[in-house]
Amino acid sequence: MVILTRIDDRLLHGQVAFAWTKSLGVDAILVANDNAATDPITKMAIKMAAPNGVKLAIKTVKEGIELLNNPKSEKVKIFVVVKNTEDAALIAKEGKGINLVNVGGIKKQEGKRMLTKAVFVDDKDITNLRSIEELGIEVEVRQVPTDAKKSLSELLK
């Protein structure tokens, strides 16, 4: 079962690997990203960031959806990490068991506006996040588990 799906453009790093994994009490981390799944250097860096005692799967987005839809996944507490809102929307739409999406880090780029000090969005991101909400899935924004939860709607006012 999916405990949390997180959008973080850095994918798996210390903050995600340790703070969130410990807070959520997960058995496994699924990094769903097409580049990470096919680039040996990125894959190696992600493996180095993974905490001991937690299973790690690095899959393409399509493979990640297949993994989440496998009945065996219902018995495992999974933390899903994706790089962007587009991948999160696709996983939310096609993957089973997504109830909560956390937006933790989207870097500043041309044409994006600041939601929080670590989250910058453009119209496409907002459309993707709203499409997740339309599926009945909660979308929250916070960097670490100890931060106060902020709803997407609250930040877009």
TrEMBL record:
Pfam family, one: PTSIIB_sorb
Domain PTS EIIB type-4: 1-157
Keyword hit for Cytoplasm: yes
Top-level taxon: Bacteria
Entry annotated with the keyword Signal: no
Record keywords: Cytoplasm, Kinase, Phosphotransferase system, Sugar transport, Transferase, Transport
Subcellular location: Cytoplasm
The protein's name: PTS sugar transporter subunit IIB
